[in-house]
Design a protein that fits this description.
Distance between the termini: 26 Å
Order of helices and strands: EHHEHEHEEEEEEEEEEHHHEEHEEH
CATH superfamily of the largest domain: Type I PLP-dependent aspartate aminotransferase-like (Major domain)
CATH architecture of the largest domain: 3-Layer(aba) Sandwich
Strand content: 15-25%
Number of domains: 2
Number of strands: 17
Radius of gyration: 21 Å
Shape: globular
Structural class: alpha/beta
CATH topology of the largest domain: Aspartate Aminotransferase, domain 2
CATH class of the largest domain: Alpha Beta
Helix content: 25-40%
Bound molecules: 4'-deoxy-4'-aminopyridoxal-5'-phosphate
Number of helices: 9
């Protein structure tokens, strides 16, 4: 039976990419070897790593002064590597507290310095993105989570924000470039989901296992000038400069994960890049949110203006029916729809590789459930 995979991560990958990856496991480009067997020092793997890094740069139009790395340890290790590389001892960083992952990033930064909470929606169970933010004077950087996977909120329009009481410049300009501090973005759950001026972020990081590939690879991209300002002694594996100097191959990289990321990035390019994928994602999200809004039985959990295009969170008004709805989803081949325990209800993760057809099947099940209520 055909399955529709709505898991939050690891998550759905394009069918074509799975085919190509399977072929690479059997034999990489007629080499007589599996991609799982080749040396990371071989010309064949170096070419894969180079292409993956080049595609990240190309898809986000990153200028030459950005470095692109493929590392391991997931986004969770970046929670620590960011302050380790950017926060001087005794220094302060400003963080938005917009969800469980942001809170974990804050915890790691606190182990290395002071954290100023720029704004928090914790008291409202993270159901929105706070817009009035403060940035502590002398902050080494400002950290945002661009999409909150657990709660289904996303920073959609920075022009609504005010910083230290002043509105950001109007939409269309590079709003947060004017902040005067490096901006760090955890983009784990919305990287490459549509057009964005990535250069408004001085550092981007993302675990690959949602929009880019399998678990095991982490993308980090940053403006090289932000490094070298902490005077900290940085352990080798946590030092971005070490990974730059070694082209992301200081030690054995997660070769297969990087290979599949490269294939997915190629697929994204074939699809037409960020504009095209953004339209595709808009269409899916619109269909699903419209279904929720037009239903008497379902209700969305995130504030409308902050709704995520990637993770759609919703509840049944009568939660005693949750099991019935899940059973109906199960019958239709819908997988991974159960909400995170901190929100309850349901979460449909509709990453890049989810076809419109998958969302249609889900909305049809929702309609049918409503009729038979
Ligand atoms: N940040 C966000 C926004 C996430 O969604 C996740 C994982 N789901 C993480 C960080 C942690 O990523 P990892 O499991 O790669 O450490």
């Amino acid at each position: 039976m055909k399955k529709y995979n709505f898991n939050a991560g690891p998550a759905i990958l394009p069918a074509e990419v799975l085919e190509e990856a399977a072929e690479g496991v059997r034999e990489l480009n007629g080499s007589g070897l599996s991609v799982l067997e080749i040396s990371h020092r071989s010309a064949a793997f170096e070419a894969i790593m180079e292409e993956a890094r080049a595609l990240v740069r190309e898809l986000y139009t990153l200028p030459d002064d950005y470095e692109v790395l493929f590392l391991q340890g997931g986004a969770s290790l970046q929670f620590l590597m960011v302050p380790m590389n950017l926060l001087p001892e005794g220094g302060t960083a400003s963080y938005m507290d917009t969800g469980g992952w942001a809170a974990k990033a804050i915890k790691e930064a606190k182990s290395l310095g002071n954290v100023h909470i720029s704004a928090s929606s914790k008291e409202q169970n993270y159901n929105h993105i706070p817009k009035n933010i403060t940035i502590a004077e002398g902050s080494a950087y400002f950290h945002v989570t661009t999409n909150n996977t657990l709660y289904g909120t996303e920073i959609n329009e920075l022009s609504r924000f005010s910083v230290n009481g002043n509105p950001l410049t109007p939409k269309g300009e590079n709003q947060i470039k004017g902040l005067g501090v490096p901006v760090v973005a955890d983009m784990s759950s919305n990287i490459f989901s549509g057009p964005v001026d990535a250069t408004q972020f001085d550092l981007i990081y993302a675990g690959a296992q949602k929009n880019v590939g399998p678990a095991g690879a982490t993308i980090v991209a940053f403006r090289s000038s932000i490094l070298g300002k902490t005077n900290r002694s940085i352990p080798t594996m946590l030092d971005y400069q070490v990974h730059i100097d070694n082209d992301s191959m200081f030690n054995t990289p997660s070769c297969f994960a990087v290979y599949v990321c490269m294939l997915t990035l190629r697929w994204l390019k074939r699809m037409g890049g960020m504009e095209a994928i953004g339209k595709h994602n808009d269409e899916k999200a619109r269909l699903l949110y419209d279904t929720i809004d037009n239903s008497d039985m379902f209700v969305g959990t995130a504030a409308r203006e902050d709704r995520s295009r990637m993770n759609v969170t919703f509840l049944l008004k009568d939660n005693s029916r949750d099991k019935d709805f899940l059973a109906m989803c199960n019958e239709a081949g819908i997988v991974g729809i159960k909400g995170h325990r901190s929100v309850g209800g349901f979460r449909a993760s509709i990453y890049n590789a989810m076809p419109l057809e998958g969302v249609k099947v889900l909305t049809e099940v929702m309609a049918e459930f409503t009729v038979h209520a």
